[in-house]
C-alpha cells in the first residue's frame, strides 16, 4: 500500500471513529442510575434514595451548550431505609405525593468548565415550587455508555418540605445533599 493510500485509509478510520463518538447520549439506563440524598436528623447522618427516575436527554459532551435534559424523580419511590419514615415522608407535611408525585429538573444551560466537567444550570420543581439550581457535573465514558455524576445541596424550606411541626431544623436539618449517578447510552 502506498503512503497516500495509507493516509486516506487512516483519515477514513478517524472520520468513522469521530462519527461514532459524535452521537449524543439519549437514553438513561435506570438500573444503572441513581438519585440519592443525605441529611442530618438530630445530628445523625442519614441517607436514602429514590428507586424510580426517568429522563429525556440529548447530551453530546463535545457540544454541551446544545444539550437538552429533563429528569423526573418519582417521589413515591423514596427509600429512607425505614418503612415508617418512607410512609411519613410522602405525607402532606413532607413531599405531599398525593398532590405532587414527582420532582422535576430541567436543564437550561450546560457549559464545559474543564475536560469532562460541566456547570449545569436549571430549575428544580418540588411540591409545585420551582427554584433555580446550579451544580457541577462530571462525564466519564464507559464504552458506549456515559456516566454523568454530580450533586448539589438544597434547602428543604425552599420547597416547603417538612411543614408544620417539622418546619424547624432542630430535628431534621434544612440542608439536604442530593447526588446523582446517571448512566446514559448513545443515540442512533
Automatic annotation (TrEMBL):
- The signal peptide annotation in the UniProt record is 1-22
Against SMART domains, the record matches this protein to: YceI
SUPFAM superfamilies cross-referenced by the UniProt entry: YceI-like
- Cross-referenced Gene3D superfamilies, in alphabetical order? Lipid/polyisoprenoid-binding, YceI-like
What is any Pfam family matched here?
YceI
Signal keyword on record: yes
Please list the residue ranges annotated as the Lipid/polyisoprenoid-binding YceI-like domain: 25-185
Query: InterPro entries from the entry?
Result: Lipid/polyisoprenoid-bd_YceI (IPR007372), TTHA0802/YceI-like_sf (IPR036761)
Q: What keywords sit in the KW lines?
A: Signal
Q: Which domain of life is it from?
A: Bacteria
Question: What is this protein called in UniProt?
Answer: Polyisoprenoid-binding protein
What species is this protein from? Answer: Limnohabitans planktonicus II-D5
Amino acid at each position: 500500500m502506498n503512503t497516500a493510500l495509507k493516509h486516506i485509509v487512516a483519515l477514513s478510520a478517524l472520520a468513522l471513529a469521530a462519527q461514532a463518538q459524535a452521537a449524543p447520549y439519549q437514553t438513561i439506563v435506570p438500573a444503572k442510575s441513581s438519585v440519592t440524598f443525605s441529611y442530618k436528623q438530630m445530628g445523625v447522618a442519614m441517607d436514602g434514595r429514590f428507586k424510580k427516575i426517568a429522563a429525556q436527554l440529548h447530551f453530546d459532551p463535545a457540544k454541551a451548550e446544545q444539550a437538552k435534559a429533563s429528569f423526573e424523580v418519582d417521589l413515591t419511590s423514596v427509600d429512607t431505609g425505614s418503612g415508617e419514615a418512607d410512609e411519613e415522608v410522602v405525607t402532606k407535611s413532607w413531599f405531599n405525593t398525593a398532590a405532587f408525585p414527582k420532582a422535576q429538573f430541567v436543564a437550561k444551560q450546560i457549559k464545559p468548565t474543564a475536560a469532562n466537567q460541566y456547570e449545569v444550570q436549571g430549575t428544580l420543581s418540588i411540591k409545585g415550587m420551582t427554584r433555580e439550581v446550579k451544580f457541577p457535573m462530571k462525564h466519564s465514558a464507559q464504552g458506549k455508555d456515559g456516566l454523568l455524576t454530580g450533586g448539589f445541596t438544597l434547602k428543604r424550606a425552599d420547597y416547603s418540605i417538612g411543614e408544620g411541626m417539622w418546619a424547624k431544623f432542630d430535628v431534621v436539618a434544612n440542608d439536604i445533599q442530593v447526588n446523582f449517578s446517571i448512566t446514559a447510552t448513545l443515540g442512533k
